[in-house]
Specification:
Rossmann fold
Length: 319
């Protein structure tokens, strides 16, 4: 049975990584409030605004056993960046100050510093899977095609904080200009030898899901699990504005899995290709252009959660 484990009481160092560009709230003030609550319960806290500085501080503290948590004060992109720059086994906590905060919603975490302080002080951790696209870790999903084109257009002209309305112009531009090239997904069936890519799907929309969360409250794979060591690959066949609206309505109503154009497979290893230029995105940030090779990373993430959440997700509480 999967277990949630409790950090030792002598692990007392907390590093708060603040992304000054995530979300619209006064991130520094909220981080300072969290620092005050943590210090009130006897923890040693350092606020860091440079990812390079954070990456330099973590390994020694993790190796010595003094690290209690690295707090990602920002959005999903902030957490992904920290996961990419810290070693496996680093206990990660989330202070959700971004636009969507999808991973925080999945873990039932709010932006209340007192609540997060209690969670860090209690020190309950679980291991969840991640994905690896090329050399970049993602926590939630990878999108290939239209949504990645929107993300690319958004970040190309980004000058500050992202709001929900920030997506309006990029979406309209993608609706007018995106060409819906055919995407080929080569993947390893679950019974394949050495995860060889022996099966193939052709589609115009591809979503590689690790956890069942997507922007706007959508879920392409509601049954996706962060503890099965697998990625759920969801595809839609046709490429046009009309078909996209039909697919979107199906997802919103939870009926897309009954559509003939929809497909879902599970795999540990896949590659997405396109004969013409097409982008991909990771956790809402630009990933680059296809092709991209993606693998599941079982148990790569160590996340601080409440014991109640852990029990509801099937984890055994093991002090």
């Amino acid at each position: 049975m999967r277990s949630a484990v409790q950090l030792p009481t002598d692990a007392r160092d907390v590093l708060i990584s603040v992304n000054p560009q995530a979300g619209v709230r006064d991130r520094r003030a909220i981080a300072v409030e969290l620092q005050r609550h943590l210090e009130d319960v006897g923890l040693a806290v350092t606020i860091v605004t440079s990812i390079d500085e954070l990456a330099a501080l973590v390994p020694d503290r993790l190796a010595s056993g003094s690290l209690r948590a690295v707090v990602a004060a920002g959005g999903d992109g902030t957490l992904s960046l920290i996961a990419n720059r810290t070693p496996p086994g680093t206990p990660l906590a989330i202070l959700p100050l971004g636009t969507e905060n999808l991973l925080a919603k999945h873990l039932e975490i709010t932006a209340d510093p007192q609540q997060l302080c209690r969670r860090i002080a209690a020190g309950w951790c679980v291991s969840l899977d991640a994905g690896l696209a090329g050399e970049r870790i993602f926590t939630l999903m990878a999108g290939c095609g239209f949504d990645a084109d929107v993300v690319r257009r958004l970040h190309r002209h980004r000058t500050g904080n992202i709001h929900h309305l920030s997506y309006a112009k990029p979406i309209l531009d993608s609706l007018r200009k995106y060409q819906y090239p055919e995407l080929r997904v080569r993947y390893a069936p679950l019974d394949s030898v050495a995860d060889e890519l022996t099966a193939e799907i052709a589609a115009r929309w591809v979503f590689v899901v690790n956890l069942p969360r997507y922007a706007g409250g959508l879920s392409f794979a509601p049954q996706a699990s962060g503890t099965d060591g697998l990625l759920d690959v969801c595809t839609f066949k046709e490429g046009s504005l009309w078909s996209g609206l039909v697919y979107l309505s199906g997802v919103m109503l939870g009926q897309h899995e009954s559509m003939e154009d929809f497909g879902r497979v599970q795999t540990r290893h896949l590659r997405v290709e396109s004969a013409s230029q097409a982008p991909f995105q990771l956790d809402g940030d630009p990933g680059g252009d296809l092709p991209v090779e993606i693998r599941a990373l079982p148990g790569r993430l160590t996340l601080l959660v409440s014991p109640q959440w852990a029990e509801r997700q099937g984890f055994e509480i093991s002090p």
